[in-house]
Design a protein that fits this description.
This protein is mainly alpha-helical. Helices cover 57% and strands 11% of the residues. It is built from seven helices and three strands, in the order αβαβαααβαα. The protein has a three-stranded parallel beta sheet. The longest helix has 27 residues.
Length: 162
């Protein structure tokens, strides 16, 4: 089943790997950096499966962060919330959408995204948002969810990416 495979790859594997690494991380005062997506913070039409696993990553690792803090373990968790990052796959998918080529103008360079992720991990940030536009979109969802729902109905359907 597609959804079960999708969950196993994009959620269960993260959870299992973190669970296996946790004893060593506790011993060494280590750090987890979890790569997620703005789609784990805001609803995106056509990406229902993708959004569901990214929301679940946020829920699991945010809860794990608090559990570790409560247990006074020196293990930190950074959630990297990424927006559009340019990759050949992203370009291919967006070129299939009406207005998709224009959307590529907002895609961040992959090397700059990597630097932002590394910086966030090195500073043990709770969350990082990259590129810069991802944080205001997330805040808009929290402050005015009905407005965000409306705005999301106006963007192209990303279903070609699934």
């Amino acid at each position: 089943d597609f959804f079960v495979d999708f969950l196993n790859i994009n959620l269960v594997s993260y959870v299992r790997l973190a669970s296996l690494a946790l004893p060593l991380l506790k011993e060494s005062g280590g750090h987890l950096v979890v790569i997620s997506s703005l789609a784990g913070k805001i609803p995106v039409p056509g990406l229902t499966f993708y959004c569901s696993v990214k929301y679940a990553l946020d829920g699991f690792f945010s809860s794990l962060r608090v559990e570790l803090m409560k247990a006074q373990q020196d293990v930190s968790v950074t959630l990297a919330v990424l927006g559009d990052i340019w990759t050949p796959r992203k370009q291919e998918a967006l070129e299939k959408l009406p207005g998709g080529k224009k959307m590529l103008d907002f895609a961040a360079a992959i090397d700059k995204a990597a630097v932002a992720i590394i910086r966030g991990g090195a500073t043990r940030a709770r969350e990082i948002y990259y590129p810069v536009y991802t944080f205001p979109w997330y805040q808009l969802t929290n402050l005015m969810p009905q407005v965000m729902d409306y705005l999301m109905t106006k963007i192209p359907d990303y279903s070609t990416e699934q």
